[in-house]
Amino acid sequence: MDSLIPSIVIDHPNGSAMDACFTAFDKDGDGRLNLAEFTLICRALFRNDRGHIYDVPAERLEQIFSVFDTNDDGYIDRDEFKFCWNQWIKTIVRPVNAFLIVDVQNDFISGSLDISNCSAQQKGHEILEPVNNLLDTVDFDAVFYSLDWHPSDHVSFIDNVKMRPLDETSPIDADSAQVFDTVIFAGPPPMKQRLWPRHCVQDSWGAELHKDLKVMDNGIKVYKGTNPEVDSYSVFWDNKKLSDTTLNAQLKMKGTTDIYVCGLAYDVCVGATAVDALSVGYRTILIDDCCRGTDFKDIENTKEKVVSSHGVIVQSNEIKAMAEGRDRRPELGYKLAMELKNPDSVLSQRNGYRAGE
């Protein structure tokens, strides 16, 4: 039966791809799509480049269908399908991809905060080969490199712990604090802070991208952690969300739909960035073998957060087909549909369409 499912073609020879798609899946010819017919569209959409069809739970199919059945009559008519086609199907088949490489800097690989000295004992340099291979083989629409870029008096440095008063609720006092401890600085409001060795100080060798990381000529660098009073794990904004970086504005400007995230450290800056990308509304793909972290339990917690927010975790050898729209994951399709219900989502705003308009 699956061999009888029509293909979805974005470029139709007569220039009427949307109408051709609607007609092909309107099996009973009544000029509208019911849930069963829409399910066939999903079976045509959500498959990989080897023809394997991904299963979509019935409940999720109904939720996606309801996004485009804007008048709640149990059908998607041609006007409603226009929204579905332009904002959902075309994005799934032709995503706009950004590759975000997080903090692949000297200090995290062989410097003062070499992550191999943390409990997981993972080696940061091991991601260089698969990351470079992706840069060589996948035609991303944009490539971003984030850099921790701390002033010398940064709040996260263990040797600066006595520069600021601790809150009375801090579990550890300044004299007893050690690397990797968490203290609470006085507010307002009080602020939890994990203490790290001095690292990635602005304009130092430790803050430079590793020499073996390929840097694309059109790559965009994003600097974070520049405020001495607050740490910044995420590449989107600081830990207190007081200020953002340039990342989101540049992603919007490029019309980005999908973000591929990797780098160091898996359970700290990479994880925070992936979760924030999902919260903003981007379809987010975490590249497992292009990340290394500090703590196994925290790495697993990071993965759970990403998956529960409708992101996906894949290996680097899966990326090319996904970026080219030949391997289309239902989790990302569901994520997109849910974002189209939210007028504040970056994906909802992307082309000016709204559900129900």
From TrEMBL:
Top-tier EC class: hydrolase
Keywords: Calcium, Hydrolase, Metal-binding, Pyridine nucleotide biosynthesis
Pathway: Cofactor biosynthesis; nicotinate biosynthesis; nicotinate from nicotinamide: step 1/1
Database matches in SUPFAM superfamilies: EF-hand, Isochorismatase-like hydrolases
Pfam family, one: EF-hand_7
UniProt-recorded Gene Ontology molecular function terms: calcium ion binding; nicotinamidase activity
EC numbers on record: 3.5.1.19
Span of domain EF-hand: 13-48, 56-91
Gene Ontology BP annotations: pyridine nucleotide biosynthetic process
InterPro entries membership: EF-hand-dom_pair, EF_Hand_1_Ca_BS, EF_hand_dom, Isochorismatase-like_dom, Isochorismatase-like_sf, Isochorismatase_Nicotinamidase
Family (UniProt): Belongs to the isochorismatase family.
PANTHER family in the cross-refs: LD05707P, PYRAZINAMIDASE/NICOTINAMIDASE
UniProt protein name: nicotinamidase
Lineage: Eukaryota, Metazoa, Ecdysozoa, Arthropoda, Hexapoda
